[in-house]
Amino acid sequence: MTEAILEVEGLHKTFKGAVAVADVSFSLRPGAALAVVGESGSGKTTVARMIVGLERPTAGRITACGHDRSHPPRSVRERRRRGGEIQIVFQDPYSSLDPRQSPATAVDEILRLHTRLDAAGRRRRVAELADLVGLDERQMNVLPSELSGGQRQRVAIARALAAEPQILILDESVAALDVSIQAQVLNVLAGVRERTGVAYLFISHDLAVVRQVADEIVVMRGGSIVERGPTAQVLDNPRHPYTRLLRTSVPGPGWRPARRATRKETQ
Amino acid sequence: MSGILDIDHLTVTLAGEDRPKPVLSDVSMSIAEGEAVGLVGESGSGKSMTVRSIIRLLPPGARMEGNIRVRGVDLGTLRGAALRKMRAEMPVIFQDPRAHINPVRSVGDFLTEALRIHRRMSRAAAEDRAADVLDEVGVSEARRRLRQYPHELSGGLLQRVMIASALLAEPRLLLADEPTTALDVTTQAEVMAVMDELRRERGLAMLFITHDLELAAAICDRTAVMYAGRVMEVRASASLLERPLHPYTAALATARPSIERKVDRLTTIPGRPLSAFEAPDGCAFNTRCAHVRESCREQRPELRTLLDGQVACVRVEELQAVSHD
Amino acid sequence: MTATSVVRARAGARAGRGGLGPLGVTAATVIAVAVVLAAIGPELASADPNASDFAHAYGPPTPGHPLGYDSQGRDLLARLLTGARTSLLGPLWVVALGMTAGTAIAVVAAWRGGWLDSMVSSVLEVMFSFPGVLLAMLVAAVFGPGLTSAVFALAVAYIPYIARLVRSAAVAERHKPYIQALEVQGLGAFTICLRHLVPNLLPLLAAQATLFFGYAMVDLAIVSFFGLGVQPPDADWGVMVASGQSGVLQGYPAESLLAGGCIVLLVVAFNVLGERLSDGRRVHRPWRLFRRGGTA
């Protein structure tokens, strides 16, 4: 078994006394795809934000690519190095891009930060990244307001990949997309992983999407992990009652919604 | 043919920035008494606009052609009090309950207002009635909830309050516009269960708008698929999912990942969903369809009766024959 | 002329889409004409604005002197045109200084949040309690009257108003995913603010600058009216309203009326334009709301 590229141990987070994340541990192997599944309030997004450094853990350790990142970076160099290790794509395609910047400029800005490529080299790399996520030259050179939600999300993915991170966190990145667009972006994600070997930490509430993307699953509820294992095993034979409830709540052929609480008889 | 709701050749055009923007184009459908019909589509398909047209809640400058009849009464002829009365009889449950409930008034005020004003019930009687209905939609401690304010309730609970308020109007037809989209899956399952159960018990008809084909199919008798402001296919739910006739329906069903198994790559539809104002000549789906022929670009296919429903595609028979070989 | 040129560029862009409306376009035109006259006006005027000729005191219009003379026999048109320059440059400096300082404070507070943000908010609260005009007069009284001290005092007095407004917009912007994505990339806070955050606040800043320009004009005129701003014999509309007072009593209201009219016209124009600009910023096409609502 190869060494983990991302190791999260005993992660805790409290917001003004309220526990958001309690004792969460997991690890991600290079090139693997791990899904963190849960509903609102499960703490899954807080875990993602702590890993990229947008929130500070109350306790616990986060190690990525051999470096500790439980504390804020101490230098400009360290901050930049972290940026080159883990990147994130958010949920809302409409606010994920600077409205005043074309996709090409946005990607170029990241390349300037993380690489020593000259202008020609950066242009080549921008074209490569555009090709990777399936955007054409025209789309790379207009303002985000002229792009659809799916196209914007591809730009966000390209921008995240510009630093050649080893880990890409996808925080509900396909949840806001239309079904036909979601399928396109999921295929792009599959292609990107095959071509670059980047590892995914996939934060989602959607079990069907998780099945398509992830090798392994961690199920969270109320800030803690309730079940973990290979995707197929967890979804086909859920052991924890909550995982079972999640599984049976998904509409599908022959699905009938059933009330959990027994209805009190009146009259 | 006269059901509880009949929509006939409905075309809606909004006032655009420089020219009028069509949002619905020749939409026809009907709902029988006690029947649940799902309306499924992606962004811009016009599914929400259909509901807004029914309750006549269109943005200023909108133009409506065709007609909508509720139990035979043409809504276009109603004005003032008659229109308000008709609206009250077909309540809408919206996606975001928080946006449709006054945050500074208690749940009790919200639920009993109509009863006290329109039915002249006493406060006590109205509260009894509201508590009963809250209980029916599975809200525990109904009496206490009446004293609470919207911000004290979770999204799922608040959506049940909205359902309760809809039921208090004793409607024959319920309009639901993505009522569970903002909710977690487990909450969605419970809210859907409540709606489904009450609807059956009371024999309510329902128009259920959603982007989730499988959810619509699971709780509706029939499902209509919309694209670019048009109805592409209306069929009995089970057969629509099992054997979609229209290429768009089929593509939509396969584009959605399955919880049962992983595939190497999902079958995608190229391009993005179009709105009515962007739709090409002929079939609106012809720019994305894998089975497009010259004839699809020339003439707009009519919705025609086939098997257990209606389909708007000229190549249905050919394609079905091929897929069964 | 940075502040006004930004405003005018935006005004032009919106006018094309009919966003300003006829009133907004009129306001923008009035301002543009005033700016042009202030820039080239003194060269246009045939007479020397400070040359007095008591023989013509309160004199009626004559050829070459279309607006007549003031109490000291100076050409009114020449004084109005020269006064335009100080009357516009003063507020411009107030707005430029106030907006720069206010925006900087607001962005730093919004970015850092926490105790720094609370402290800045408290300091601003205290500053709110000083009326701008009084502060300007106080400063002028202590450091000697003159346009410079009035401009500085007013700029400081405007900071809390500007900072409070910009802060709430900056806080909203700071928590948008695109800013956070740049943070995760490892970009420095200063770079993110300068290259991304502030540029995205520009429409708001332009609208506010326009509104504050109008306020600053009135406030500076008041200060000058009381003799603590621009010093005679330099022409300034506020000074002219004041020096025209004796004329009003003697039945020659031209000086006060003309200068006062110019102030009112421009202040109204700036307010209308500022309001139109901030309205335009908030206009959402109903379309988008529906389409977003339908998205899964």
UniProtKB/TrEMBL annotation, chain A:
<dbReference type="InterPro" id="IPR050319">
    <property type="entry name" value="ABC_transp_ATP-bind"/>
</dbReference>
<dbReference type="GO" id="GO:0016887">
    <property type="term" value="F:ATP hydrolysis activity"/>
</dbReference>
<dbReference type="InterPro" id="IPR017871">
    <property type="entry name" value="ABC_transporter-like_CS"/>
</dbReference>
<keyword id="KW-0547">Nucleotide-binding</keyword>
<dbReference type="InterPro" id="IPR003593">
    <property type="entry name" value="AAA+_ATPase"/>
</dbReference>
<dbReference type="InterPro" id="IPR013563">
    <property type="entry name" value="Oligopep_ABC_C"/>
</dbReference>
<keyword id="KW-0813">Transport</keyword>
<dbReference type="Pfam" id="PF00005">
    <property type="entry name" value="ABC_tran"/>
</dbReference>
<comment type="similarity">
    <text>Belongs to the ABC transporter superfamily.</text>
</comment>
<dbReference type="Pfam" id="PF08352">
    <property type="entry name" value="oligo_HPY"/>
</dbReference>
<dbReference type="InterPro" id="IPR003439">
    <property type="entry name" value="ABC_transporter-like_ATP-bd"/>
</dbReference>
<feature type="domain" description="ABC transporter">
    <location>
        <begin position="6"/>
        <end position="247"/>
    </location>
</feature>
<dbReference type="GO" id="GO:0055085">
    <property type="term" value="P:transmembrane transport"/>
</dbReference>
<protein>
    <submittedName>
        <fullName>Dipeptide/oligopeptide/nickel ABC transporter ATP-binding protein</fullName>
    </submittedName>
</protein>
<dbReference type="GO" id="GO:0005524">
    <property type="term" value="F:ATP binding"/>
</dbReference>
UniProtKB/TrEMBL annotation, chain B:
<keyword id="KW-1003">Cell membrane</keyword>
<dbReference type="Pfam" id="PF00005">
    <property type="entry name" value="ABC_tran"/>
</dbReference>
<dbReference type="Pfam" id="PF08352">
    <property type="entry name" value="oligo_HPY"/>
</dbReference>
<dbReference type="GO" id="GO:0015833">
    <property type="term" value="P:peptide transport"/>
</dbReference>
<dbReference type="GO" id="GO:0005524">
    <property type="term" value="F:ATP binding"/>
</dbReference>
<protein>
    <submittedName>
        <fullName>Peptide ABC transporter ATP-binding protein</fullName>
    </submittedName>
</protein>
<dbReference type="GO" id="GO:0016887">
    <property type="term" value="F:ATP hydrolysis activity"/>
</dbReference>
<dbReference type="InterPro" id="IPR003593">
    <property type="entry name" value="AAA+_ATPase"/>
</dbReference>
<keyword id="KW-0472">Membrane</keyword>
<keyword id="KW-0547">Nucleotide-binding</keyword>
<keyword id="KW-0997">Cell inner membrane</keyword>
<dbReference type="InterPro" id="IPR027417">
    <property type="entry name" value="P-loop_NTPase"/>
</dbReference>
<keyword id="KW-0813">Transport</keyword>
<dbReference type="InterPro" id="IPR013563">
    <property type="entry name" value="Oligopep_ABC_C"/>
</dbReference>
<dbReference type="GO" id="GO:0005886">
    <property type="term" value="C:plasma membrane"/>
</dbReference>
From TrEMBL, chain C:
<keyword id="KW-0472">Membrane</keyword>
<dbReference type="GO" id="GO:0055085">
    <property type="term" value="P:transmembrane transport"/>
</dbReference>
<keyword id="KW-1133">Transmembrane helix</keyword>
<feature type="domain" description="ABC transmembrane type-1">
    <location>
        <begin position="84"/>
        <end position="274"/>
    </location>
</feature>
<dbReference type="InterPro" id="IPR050366">
    <property type="entry name" value="BP-dependent_transpt_permease"/>
</dbReference>
<dbReference type="InterPro" id="IPR000515">
    <property type="entry name" value="MetI-like"/>
</dbReference>
<feature type="transmembrane region" description="Helical">
    <location>
        <begin position="90"/>
        <end position="111"/>
    </location>
</feature>
<protein>
    <submittedName>
        <fullName>Dipeptide ABC transporter permease DppC</fullName>
    </submittedName>
</protein>
<feature type="transmembrane region" description="Helical">
    <location>
        <begin position="149"/>
        <end position="166"/>
    </location>
</feature>
<feature type="transmembrane region" description="Helical">
    <location>
        <begin position="256"/>
        <end position="274"/>
    </location>
</feature>
<keyword id="KW-0812">Transmembrane</keyword>
<dbReference type="InterPro" id="IPR035906">
    <property type="entry name" value="MetI-like_sf"/>
</dbReference>
<keyword id="KW-0813">Transport</keyword>
<dbReference type="GO" id="GO:0005886">
    <property type="term" value="C:plasma membrane"/>
</dbReference>
<feature type="transmembrane region" description="Helical">
    <location>
        <begin position="123"/>
        <end position="143"/>
    </location>
</feature>
